Amino acid sequence: MQTVRHSEQTLKTALISKNPALVSQYEKLDAGERRLMNQAFQPNSDLFGPITVHSRSDWITSHPEDPQDFEQFFSDPYRKTPSPEKRSIYIQCIGSLGNTRAISEEYIKWLQGYCEAFFYGLTVKLLAPVPVSATRCSFRVNDSTQNLQIHAGHILKFLKKKKPGDAFCIVGVTMIDLYPRDSWNFVFGQASLTDGPGAVD
């Protein structure tokens, strides 16, 4: 087991920028918001806590990625940003999220609150839940797990059609396994950066 932990200096290098646009945004923050931002550099902060790698098959070790600092993220020409006309995140439940309707509703309310806090300034709206059959997507039974799985790409097409005009994005949430193609065992989620739909299980 391995723990990935970043030093205060590493975090400052990754997060602090002299980009005038970012400096201007930082200067607009109030004192409380600045305190929250500064917590990111503290070794014991919850914002960038250590990551425990349990085995070589964990995502972080089996799928290495090039590092990206905040300025690179901010300057990415493909990064979508909300506009005055598109400032809503829509959540679409697909199938049941729990053993009872009350559990499903409690979970989705928690998810809505989390998204509103994380994506501060955007409105998070809930669409009426739909059964899996409403998506008309392909499905299969996984040979190894014997679990029902639904095709993630088909879910994205369904969500794209349901995406309201004021939506920054629409997220489909399901407790059913997803798979992106026949050769894959499963996938945690899939999204389209250009069209704005995403699906997670």
Automatic annotation (TrEMBL):
Q: Which gene encodes it?
A: AMZ2
Q: Could you say which cofactors this protein requires? A: Zn(2+)
The lineage, from the top, is: Eukaryota, Metazoa, Chordata, Craniata, Vertebrata
Gene3D superfamilies documented for this protein: Collagenase (Catalytic Domain) (3.40.390.10)
* Family as reported in the entry's similarity comment: Belongs to the peptidase M54 family.
Protein name according to UniProt:
Archaemetzincin-2
Which InterPro entries does the UniProt entry name for this protein? Archaemetzincin, MetalloPept_cat_dom_sf, Pept_M54_archaemetzincn
- What is the documented function of this protein? Probable zinc metalloprotease.
Instruction: Cite a single GO BP annotation.
Output: proteolysis
In which domain of life is the source organism classified?
Eukaryota
